[in-house]
Amino acid sequence: MADTTTDRPGGPPPRKGVPHAATVTAVRRLTPHTVRVTLGGEEVASLDPTPYTDRYVKLVLGEPAEPGARPPVRTYTVRAVRDGEWDVDLVVHGDEGLGGPWATRVRPGEQVTFLGPGGGYAPDPEAPWHLLAGDDSALPAIAATLETLPPGAVARAFVEVPGAADEQPVRTAADVRVTWVHPGSRTLEDAVMEAHAAGALPGGVPQAFLHGEAGCVRVLRRWARAELGVPRERLSASGYWRRGRSDETWRAEKREWVAAVEQDDAALAAV
After folding, report:
1. What's 226's domain CATH number?
2. Both 250 and 170 in a single domain?
3. Distance between CA atoms of residues 206 and 194, nearest Å
4. By Cβ atoms counted within 10 A, which residue in 38, 63, 86, 139 is the most buried?
5. By residue range, what is the domain housing residue 51?
6. For the chain, which ranges sit under pLDDT 50?
7. Confidence at residue 254, expressed as pLDDT on a 0 to 100 scale
């Protein structure tokens, strides 16, 4: 997950600037492209993890590039909270980026500093149904959401992962169907829209969680607003990253993306 957010219904602003210390208590490779790092320690156990299923922390993953500069940080969703420990799932694509390589080399007992937690989305029990769509960077939040849904809740999730080996089981008491999308077959946007066209989505206006690659999120957000009638207060949409951009470049461009999203809403209102 990258540090770019737009629609966050009902949530407070992220808690920034306060560093916390944690100890890595476990490291586990879940799939070929996902590593779970478990954080523990007194500070972790004493923090309020927030009630949000998209809760996240900003991991400090290196030293400042120059004196006076800020150290590099990367934002990741807290997949699960239990017994004073937090599971953080990181996507790994070889030597790309900072977080993936760090996750493959870190070992239990090592110390890490993080900022947060932040968050702003949780499933609304009054929603007729829930639409969740994203890539592997959004899978931790999607899975955490599905697992909290009670019996009787209805959800349809669409998740793009590199391959079948990267699909993850999700345990839930709700009526949930997960559609896995692999690159090269069809796009995530097409999978969602084709399901709607085929009548495979429930009726009524859902609460929607649309997160992941910025271009995909913008397309799905615009479609959900126009085609499904999802109002902004029932919408959480965030570009975690952008294809062809580094994390730093994307963060510098995010205001332009948010402005473009606002233009989408203005065009919809004018129709």
Report:
1. 3.40.50.80
2. yes
3. 17
4. 139
5. 19-118
6. 2-5, 10-15
7. 87
- pLDDT value of residue 97: 84
Total tally of structural domains belonging to the chain? 2
CA 222/CA 14 separation, integer angstroms: 25
CATH number, position 72: 2.40.30.10
User: Which residues have C-beta within 8 Å of that of residue 151, sequence separation ≥ 6?
Assistant: 173, 174
- If asked whether residues 110 and 139 sit together in one domain, one would say no
Residue finishing a domain among 118, 143, 166? 118
Provide the pLDDT for residue 17.
Answer: 72
Residue 244's pLDDT is what? 77
